[in-house]
Write a structure and sequence with these properties.
α5 packs parallel to α18. This protein has 18 helices and 25 strands. By secondary structure, it is α/β, with parallel strands linked by helices.
Length: 616
């Protein structure tokens, strides 16, 4: 068994420190040696015994051809009983010097499987493994052509009728979807679809990414003019190509749009703009999808084997049905259609909602001297950007993290190594500190009548995002405007009735209104499936997003992973991709490897296909 030593607090000289570091490495080496011995000998009980009772093993495709987490020795035993024979894991090697803090050793490692190579991070304690992350990095024989294996770009020598690179790209674009069918069709050409398209290209998987907008990046260009990313640049890199070092910390929407357009070109993604998916059905006999799309006004039928929906985090815009809406004489629209403050000059605007979009829109309106009132129906979590950067993200995604050796690749794995079941316990202290640090702002917001929360269990922004995808604002300035009354506020109420030139609230208040903005969020992603494929397929797939935490808007039972994201769904050959820029970047790796394995005909037995507990 592994050897762990506690050490004595008074031992501080260099020799003792070196001895402790050596012992930490030996202990980690022993744990992996014991683990590999148990696996290669087929002794599943011995492998399970290396884990604590309160342990977690999260696997990203390497063992399970799924994204799944098991708990405790019993979960480890079940996973191995179903996957060990096919996976054939071996060659577990420490890839960095293990580090120990507070009795927990962090050990980075690499390993092989029968068909791939992987890496991971273990947290080891004297009682055994606490957490284990295993992730698939590449498939043997189907590696990406990068580094020393990168393409030549040109074959030297003389050859008649040689095609240039430009001619080869033009030929591929002309044939794909016409004389050659894509193996993968990605519906949605925002950052998620584009990033996945880049990975498909590097894995030599025939693909098409379609989007209704004419140009890549238009999804961002067409939003309200003040929009910027609220996440920092270190968090937002795309696959293969990080933003330049001079890039702003918070990217303006139009700058991001231009980057996505450039990226699509240089990564040679087969991208069809001005293309809308009209209808899709799965042909069981042929094992393929039949997808009717309208491209530049003409119908085209595509027959991909795999269909990926990459339409962001959410489904259709939620536009509440309110009595009297048809009588309103002004302009009313969802926040996703908001044109910006210029069209609102000299008008009274009521914004229904109090999360990110509502705050951004209200702030931009105030900056342009527009009379604006925010209607807050329920409590909202406010996370000041500076505090969020320093307390929550700084250790993994910041200039300081990069200087300390944590680039976004390493940061992604560290983030992924924390099981969702215990993630809230990592976040609660962060937001407890935020409450203290920003107590003045919070106090003034509450005095202004703003209803605050920190999530059902005090775990703050990211857990709210994972559980429900809503209910928060990353404060980049609007909260001060609410606190000081510059943005008018009506809280704890809803709009009961819309009148020709006003709205009546549930407390009887009447607000004059020339413009009504619904910053009311979005539905589940599988609403897209109901319309494009069928309600039966949408129900077969079930609700998308959320963990089953039994918290507000995230009904149980516990799922262990995000519902239906980046992994096999209950509809054959249908996948869902999305999330923020960080998630799209990281998890596109595992989705693309699952697709590549199927493209090459590898066996991909899925462990623990998730059950459907909720339809929408």
């Amino acid at each position: 068994m592994s050897r762990f030593t506690q050490g004595k607090a008074e031992e501080t000289d260099m020799t003792d420190i070196m001895d402790a570091e050596t012992q930490t490495t030996l202990d980690a080496h022993d744990w992996f040696a014991d683990f590999e011995k148990a696996l290669t000998s087929g002794d599943i009980d011995a492998a399970a015994a290396l884990f604590r009772e309160d342990s977690y093993w999260r696997d990203l495709v390497a063992f399970t051809w799924n994204i799944t987490t098991v708990e405790g020795p019993a979960g480890v035993r079940d996973l191995l009983q179903h996957t060990l024979a096919a996976t054939q894991p071996s060659n577990f090697v420490l890839s960095a010097e293990p580090t120990e803090a507070d009795g927990v050793t962090d050990a980075w490692f690499t390993f092989d499987t029968a068909v791939g190579r992987g890496s991971g991070l273990a947290r080891l304690t004297p009682d055994g493994a606490w957490t284990l992350l295993t992730s698939l990095d590449e498939l043997k024989g189907f590696e990406e052509n990068s580094g020393a294996d990168r393409p030549h770009g040109v074959e030297h020598g003389a050859e008649r009728d040689r095609l240039s690179w430009k001619e080869q790209r033009e030929l591929e674009n002309a044939e794909m979807g016409v004389t050659t069918q894509p193996y993968v069709l990605v519906i949605g050409g925002g950052q998620g679809g584009i990033g996945l398209g880049a990975r498909l290209k590097q894995l030599s998987i025939p693909h098409i990414v379609i989007d209704k907008h004419p140009r890549p990046g238009d999804q961002w260009r067409n939003r309200y003019k003040s929009l910027c990313l609220h996440d920092p640049v270190w968090y937002d890199h795309l696959p293969y190509m990080k933003f330049p070092d001079h890039w702003p910390i918070f990217t303006p929407k139009d700058k991001l749009g231009d980057w996505l357009e450039m990226y699509t070109k240089v990564m040679e993604i087969n991208y069809w703009g001005s293309t809308t998916a009209k209808k899709a059905q799965f042909n069981e006999a042929n094992g393929e999808w039949e997808v009717v799309v309208v491209r530049d006004g003409k119908e085209v039928t595509l027959r991909p084997k795999q269909l990926v929906f990459a339409l962001g985090v959410s489904g259709y815009a939620n536009v509440p049905k309110i009595a009297g809406a048809e009588t309103f004489l002004g302009d009313q629209h969802h926040s996703s259609k908001h044109p910006g403050p210029d069209a609102c000059q000299g008008k009274k605007v009521v914004v229904l909602g109090s999360n990110n979009s509502a705050h951004d829109i209200c702030a931009a309106l105030w900056e342009n001297d527009v009379d604006v009132t925010m209607v807050q129906r329920s409590s909202t979590h406010i996370a000041p950007s500076d505090s969020l950067m320093e307390l929550a993200l700084g250790g993994l995604y910041s200039e300081q993290a990069v200087k300390s050796g944590i680039d976004h690749h390493k940061a992604d794995l560290i983030f992924a190594s924390v099981p969702y079941k215990i993630m809230h316990s990592f976040h609660i202290p962060v937001y407890d500190e935020m409450k203290k640090r920003d107590a003045d702002l919070y106090g003034r917001l509450e005095k202004a009548g703003f209803m605050l929360d920190f999530g059902d269990d005090g775990s703050g922004l990211f857990m709210k995002y994972l559980r429900r995808g809503s209910g928060y604002y990353i404060d980049v300035g609007a909260s001060e405007l609410v606190a000081n009354g510059s943005i008018k506020l009506k809280s704890g109420v809803n709009i009961e009735r819309i009148n020709p030139t006003s709205v009546t609230l549930t407390d009887g208040t009447e607000l004059p209104a020339d413009v009504l903005v619904y910053a009311t969020g979005y539905g589940s992603m599988n609403h897209w499936l109901a319309d494009l494929v069928s309600p039966e397929v949408a129900d077969r797939v079930g609700k998308v997003w959320g963990l089953g935490s039994a918290t507000t808007k995230d009904p149980g039972p516990w799922e262990g992973e995000l519902r239906n994201m980046w992994k096999p769904t209950n509809q054959k050959q249908l996948w869902i991709h999305g999330g923020n820029l960080h998630q799209s970047r990281h998890y596109s790796q595992f989705l693309s490897l699952q697709l590549k394995a199927r493209y090459e005909g590898l066996s991909t037995p899925v462990y623990e296909q998730a059950a459907v507990h909720h339809l929408r």
